[in-house]
């Protein structure tokens, strides 16, 4: 399997800021959140202290949602099949995942983790997953097997596991925004793999975002102001070195996403919602996408390029 990378480059175009901002230079932190490139951009005399608090919140949430930290809440749930007294943030994210699952006709389904692991294992060995293995593993996939509440999160079938990679990055952006908003802060761009604009660009207007689908740049395609943007490229991350086996898997069939879309970009009031929808839309025809969007006020498809 090729190393994790971002086929799609989404960059905040903050270079050409208006003159009023030049009195307060733009500050940007760059790092990593849940394995994705992350950044926080703002113009504020206490920018470093603000970013320090935001980074602490990101680290706290990674200890809940990381698949790779064996001590995280999610890793413990996947290992044991049950997690007592789950963190509130995990319950909140699962609730949002349930809404996305229902609205997308099941295309958004975090229980695909066993399938994802099988594809990763097979391609690391230089093979394709065996049909009989996929059939057996697909029986462990299904949102109806996930039960959650304040007392516990549990699975009703052995071998089930969750991946929240299609929603958690956006969800973390929402939580960072809530923290900063509670402090009365605004005009901050948060990027945890998905973008969320808390307010607008310092000096006026929205934060201009550049979308790159690998073939053609769509400059200033979206100007974010109090809005989130998430993008998914089905073949941006692939299991095979030839770039044919998409990392986005259909929970109904266990097969990779068909090569219908090269890039899907969604805006929504919450980054977690935009994240989940952009993931699911990679598996859906345009008519189904439009029907799903109607269920979420303020959500919109801002870019959909066919492969």
Tell me what you see in this structure.
The chain has 307 residues and is of the alpha+beta class. The protein has one domain (9-306): ApbE-like domains (T-fold, Roll). 32% of the residues lie in helices and 23% in strands. It is built from eight helices and 13 strands. It has a seven-stranded antiparallel sheet, with helices on one face. A three-stranded antiparallel sheet has the order 1-9-10, with no helix packed on it. It has a three-stranded antiparallel sheet with strand order 4-6-5. Helix 1 runs antiparallel to helix 6 (168-182), helix 3 crosses helix 7 (271-281) and helix 6 packs antiparallel against helix 7 (271-281). The longest helix has 19 residues, at 47-65. It starts with 8 loop residues before the first strand and ends with a strand. Mean pLDDT is 88; it is low at 1-22.
Number of separate structural domains: 1
Main-sheet strand order equals: 2-3-7-8-11-12-13
Span from first to last CA?
A: 22 Å
Which outline best applies?
A: globular
Kindly name the structural category. Answer: alpha+beta
CATH fold-type name: T-fold
The fourth-level CATH homologous superfamily is ApbE-like domains
The total of beta strands comes to: 13
